[in-house]
From TrEMBL:
InterPro entries per record: Sel1-like, Sel1_AlgK, TPR-like_helical_dom_sf
Family annotation (PANTHER family): ERAD-ASSOCIATED E3 UBIQUITIN-PROTEIN LIGASE COMPONENT HRD3 (PTHR11102:SF160), SEL-1-LIKE PROTEIN (PTHR11102)
Parts forming coiled coils: none
Protein name per its UniProtKB record: Uncharacterized protein
Species this chain originates from: Plectus sambesii
One Pfam family here: Sel1
Family under the similarity heading: Belongs to the sel-1 family.
Length: 481
């Protein structure tokens, strides 16, 4: 079973503006006695210093183009697959509960008087449960009041809430409406979000060209997420002519701002020599930077580099360490790879039960290699009770995704079933002529199925990247088998 390698991720990040950071210089400390005397004065003071507040922003990431490569593969195939994953972070200050309650009270006074900044900040406090129990509904309520007055950050945040269905019924169409309002005012995060929506056909007809248009607007304003997204579209040739050089250019721009996905993307470009001279050492350098920031795909790839000894000393223990970090974040390929290490006892104590555990996690996410691995464990009865039925189920799932090993595994189960059926026929009570006809029919059905499997694999080999001699040897071996 092969360890799986991930290539260029396009961690296209779609942001909101939910995270508002209150720096110490932007916090107005209001005397409690004066506050009791005059709430209006507090509101006025807040409005005067509103410009000093640093806006906290929501970062919603979207995994993008990933290059799937099996262990020892000579070249990766680009597989674009962008998914939305919303994540709201908040910069926690050292303020105590009393300070937060006071701040909440002050914002409430200003917000009730129509201050758009205070309304937006009040929404943030409700979202994060600061000085008040958390409430998405109240969060949306205050975002809407601020957004209706034209506050660009509140408009973008309201779009994020509609996209996630938080505090409102989920609606991509409503999300698009609010993203567009903010984007038209020049909000870079809303522009990037709008590009993501067009890329994925969410609330609008899918259009790579429109996606690129909005990514470019956002990237031009210095948005690192949009810069990374442009790297992805140039790498894959979606909405623009494919250009590895341009992809590298935009990845580098995002990296200048410490963008983890851009670091991962550049690492994959170096590993495969796309737009830059091929260098395992440079690939490891950028994978490590990204992995240290918690990027799950970079962690998986770093594990593969350790396992194969590319760009650094070979170490199964280090490979397991990085596979585990990635797998625990839910990365399906890393989960499969960790299963392989447990099954083979590489870098860990051998354990079929642990191997099954990680294969199953990978398989449940639809990873074809993980599905094949789980099927093989059921077929052999390793770590689980032996079951041809379960093996057949997982082999079939793997084969339906075009996984060659899954197809052969499926063929093997069918072969076994055919042989068992033939034995039953021969031991039955039918006349010899009927038995012979049934035997020939079963053999023919099995040969047809195996023939299809062989043809599919030969097609893959014929368009692969290995040498012609190697391909011919592999095809010959398949035919012989």
């Amino acid at each position: 079973m092969n360890s799986q390698h991930e290539g260029v991720e396009a961690k296209a990040i779609k942001e909101g503006d939910h995270n508002e950071r209150d720096s110490s210089c932007g916090i107005v400390e209001i005397d409690k006695e004066k506050a009791a005397e005059s709430k209006k004065m507090n509101a006025a003071l807040l409005m005067m210093v509103g410009a000093f507040f640093v806006t906290l922003e929501v970062i919603a990431t979207a995994d993008g183009a990933e290059v799937r490569a099996k262990r020892n593969a000579t070249e990766d195939a680009v597989m674009p697959n962008i998914r939305t994953r919303m994540d709201v972070s908040f910069s926690r200050t050292r303020e105590g509960a009393a300070d937060l309650r006071e701040k909440f009270t002050n914002y409430s006074v200003a917000a009730e008087q129509g201050d758009v900044v205070a309304q937006s900040k009040l929404g943030i406090m409700y979202r994060n449960g600061q000085g008040v129990p958390p409430s998405y509904e109240e969060d949306v309520n205050w975002y809407r009041k601020s957004a209706d007055q034209g506050n660009v950050k509140a408009q973008n945040n309201l779009g994020v809430m509609y996209q996630n269905g938080q505090g409102v019924l989920q609606s991509d169409e409503e999300a698009i409406d609010w993203f567009k309002k903010a984007a038209d005012q020049g909000n870079a995060k809303a522009q990037n979000s709008l590009g993501w929506m067009f890329s994925n056909g969410k609330g609008v007809p899918q259009s790579d060209e429109e996606a690129v248009k909005w990514y470019r607007k956002s990237a031009g304003r210095g948005d690192a997420d949009a810069q990374n997204n442009l790297g992805v579209v140039y790498q894959n040739g979606k909405g623009v002519p494919q250009s590895y050089e341009e992809a590298v250019n935009w990845y580098r721009k995002s990296i200048e701002q410490g963008h983890a996905s851009g670091q991962f993307g550049l690492g994959a470009m170096y590993e495969n020599g796309r737009g830059v001279p091929q260098s395992y050492e440079e690939a490891v350098k950028w994978y490590k930077k990204s992995a240290d920031q918690g990027n799950a795909k970079a962690q998986n790839n770093l594990g593969v580099m350790h396992q194969n000894g590319k760009g650094l000393p070979q170490s199964d223990k280090e490979a397991v360490k990085w596979y585990r970090k990635s797998a625990e974040q839910g990365n399906a390929k890393a989960q499969n790879n960790l299963g392989v290490m447990y099954q083979n006892g590489q870098g860990v104590l051998q354990s079929d039960e642990e191997a099954v555990k990680w294969y199953r996690k990978s398989a449940d996410q639809g990873d074809a290699t993980g599905q094949f691995g789980l099927g093989a464990m059921y077929r052999k009865g390793l770590g689980v009770p032996q079951s041809d039925e379960e093996a057949l189920r997982w082999y079939k799932k793997s084969a339906e995704q075009g996984h060659a090993s899954g197809e052969f595994g499926l063929g093997g189960i069918v072969e076994k079933a055919c042989l068992n059926q033939m034995k039953k026929q021969l031991n039955g009570t039918k006349n010899q002529q009927n038995k012979e006809m049934q035997r020939r029919k079963l053999i023919l059905e099995w040969c047809i199925r195996m023939g299809k499997v062989c043809l599919n694999l030969m097609k893959k080999l014929s368009i692969g990247t290995g040498s012609q001699q190697t391909k011919e040897m592999q095809v010959g071996k398949i035919i012989l088998e």
